[in-house]
Design brief:
Blueprint lengths: L8 E6 L2 H16 L4 H4 E5 L5 H8 L9 E6 L6 H12 L5 E8 L6 H9 L1 E5 L6 H11 L6 H11 L3 H14 L8 H7 L4 H13 L3 H13 L4 H23 L4 H7 L8 H11 L4 H19 L5 H28 L1
Parallel strand pairs: 1-4, 1-5, 2-3, 3-4
Length: 338
């Protein structure tokens, strides 16, 4: 049955605002095929508009049509008392009116979802972290562009999994891109600036993966933005201590769930094990982690003692750590080839 059919309430919700907004836009197209939206559509926002006013609009008789539509955005903000009021309305809904609720990131077990499931229809929209790169690649394809793997990885690390931010980044790159070459890392770096916090995470990830070229570019951008070398060295040390602990727990035969618990990783960030720690620890042994941590301690000590310039200490550590990681993994691949 069509979502704009004879039902009193319809809930659209998901973990991405962009997906919810796009679904609403498509729904409005279907609504326009059934009635004149100028007279028979009202749009409200929970938290800003009182539910009493919204339900009064829902009870308004359609004008020159048998259908009326009321959209309530940010429905996750409805309070418990408002949900009770909504429940009473749904016991005897207005004939000919479809109440559309749009919510961002409510829990599937929330009172809102359960309430609508009983009275109408629910549609969940979601993208997992692993699906985001493919989604971004498709967005580039729609713009007639190809994008390199490094540029794609940078965009996700720089902007996270927020599809709305990623969409704006693709649009910006498409406007400035020239020629038929693929969008590369340098172009993505030049046009898309992450928050300082996300830039640090991406810098640390690139070092831990042995990608000295990208790490140095990110390092220089962070220094230009006023980031302190001491902060970046501390971030590197923290990551490699995490990797050493992960390596030890994995060698003990611990399960992924046990590792998450032992490392005090929040459940919502459990993906870090498979997406970050596992690939970054790959090919390295305990001795490698200890040598890397020793290198970082040396850089921190020489920086604090004034023996090395601050930027030089950070650059030396960046190149030294990334080079050791890349060299060890390169030797591992060479041995497997034989």
């Amino acid at each position: 049955m069509s979502p704009v059919g004879e039902i009193p309430v319809y809930l659209i919700y998901g973990n991405q605002r962009l997906l919810v907004e796009e679904e609403l836009a498509m729904l409005r197209v279907k609504m326009a095929q059934k009635t004149d939206l100028e007279f028979n559509l009202a749009v409200f926002e929970a938290g800003e508009d009182a539910l009493e006013r919204i339900l009064q609009s829902a009870e308004t008789v359609p004008m020159a049509s048998d259908r009326r539509y009321v959209i309530v955005k940010e429905a996750q903000k409805l309070t418990s008392s408002e949900l009770k009021l909504l429940s009473r309305y749904l016991d005897n809904p207005a004939e000919g009116t479809l109440l559309v609720l749009a919510a961002v990131d409510p829990k599937p077990t929330s009172s809102l979802v359960r309430l609508v499931e009983k009275a109408g229809r629910v549609k969940e929209l979601a993208k997992t972290r692993s699906q985001v790169p493919g989604w971004v690649r498709e967005r580039f394809k729609k713009e007639g562009l190809r994008v390199s793997g490094k540029a794609l990885a940078y965009l996700q690390e720089a902007l996270g999994d927020d599809l709305m931010s990623l969409e704006k980044a693709v649009e910006k790159i498409a406007i400035y891109h020239q020629g038929g070459e693929e969008v590369d890392l340098d172009e993505a770096l030049a046009l898309v600036s992450p928050s300082a916090e996300r830039s640090v995470f991406e810098y640390v990830d690139r070092v831990a993966l042995g990608d000295a070229e990208t790490a140095l570019k990110l390092m220089r951008r962070l220094l230009e933005q006023g980031e302190r070398p001491e902060h970046l060295l501390n971030a590197l040390s923290r990551r490699f201590r995490e990797l050493l602990l992960y390596h030890a727990l994995r060698d003990e035969g611990r399960t992924e769930g046990e590792i998450v618990a032992c490392m005090s990783i929040p459940p919502k960030r459990a993906w870090m094990i498979t997406k970050k720690l596992k690939p970054q620890a790959s090919g390295l042994e305990e001795g490698d982690f200890l040598a890397i941590l020793s290198l970082l301690v040396e850089a921190e000590w020489n920086l604090k003692a004034g023996r090395w310039e601050r930027d030089y200490a950070l650059e030396r550590a960046t190149v030294g750590v990334a080079g050791r990681v890349a060299g060890k993994r390169g030797r591992g691949r060479a041995r497997r080839a034989f």
